[in-house]
UniProtKB/TrEMBL annotation:
Compositionally biased spans, kind Acidic residues: 82-92
InterPro entries assigned to the protein according to its UniProt record, in alphabetical order: Chitin-bd_dom, Chitin-bd_dom_sf, Chitin_bind-dev_reg
Gene3D superfamilies: Chitin binding domain (2.170.140.10)
GO molecular function ontology, one term from the record: chitin binding
Domain Chitin-binding type-2: 92-150, 160-220, 225-289
Residue spans of biased composition, Basic residues class: 317-326
Gene Ontology CC: one annotated term: extracellular region
Keywords, ordered alphabetically: Chitin-binding, Disulfide bond, Glycoprotein, Repeat, Signal
Record's protein name: Chitin-binding type-2 domain-containing protein
A Pfam cross-reference name: CBM_14
Chain intervals for the UniProt region annotation (Disordered): 64-92, 298-326
Amino acid sequence: MYCTLICSFLTCNFDAIPDTSKRTYVLKIDVIVCILSDYFIDIKVEFANRVVTALTRKQEAAEQSRRKAALATTPKTKQEQEQEYEDDDDLVDQCPEPNGYFPDAEQCDKYYDCQDGKITEKLCPDGLVFNDFSPQHEKCDLPFGIDCSKRPKRQKPQPSPHCPRMHGYFAHEDPRNCNTFYYCVEGKFNMITCPDGLVFSEKTGICNWPDEAQKKGCGSRELFNFTCPKVDESVAATHPRYPDTEDCQYFYVCVNGEVPRRSGCKLGQAFDERSGKCDWARKIPECKDWYKDQLTDEELDALENPPPKPKPTGGPSRRKSNRPTV
């Protein structure tokens, strides 16, 4: 290199810059300026992510103390959570690309905002994680469907009543309550109940069939006390249906003849075991009085024979064209 020829004109600045995401130090060579005769060569070398792994014990202890002190303080505001890494002259280039949004390598709810090479560390609201589907989009999302297996760390939870974290869908505290869950926003909860026959899935955050939710203690047999009768393969392939002996409106579908799923008829109807379909309750002898204490005869008549929908009026009329046809 030309610089070795004229050491008197060589200016080098070495700084060890802390990389807080990895508890290591990044080596920074600011500027090497070499002046030779009537012209000069300006060589600027920036090492992004060239990590000095041999930290002294003193540096490691100081870093650990700083992290523990930070965790002990009150939760930071959104503005305080955004940490800009820059100095007066140059910025350490840690961006994979000059512009975009990039996930942290270890923490799923942390990401980096790179704008024209400037990097800003950001943190999603508690309970959300960074969705890294595209560097062009800055999006924090619920953790369902986002792979955090390679960056499993998350920020310290900020719990509130019924909300383990400030945002998200969370199961009821009682493990025997299978179909109730909480939707939390900013630490405030709304209790939601799944439709009949479904349970809350902690893996997907939605209501699902018990056999698909696979929640402990919430299987079909535990919930409904029903077991599919053994049938041959030809019958099993038709997904046979069986009545709920305690409720005329409901029945069980045995998927592949083995897995029971509870389903139901619409209001005013009951399951007819002979046809394997739903029909009006008054037409099924064993269920003709099922709605007696729930609906009046007039209400049942209205359900069975709804009034015809009125025809739309007031629209533009379509007049036949007077043009001659060819």
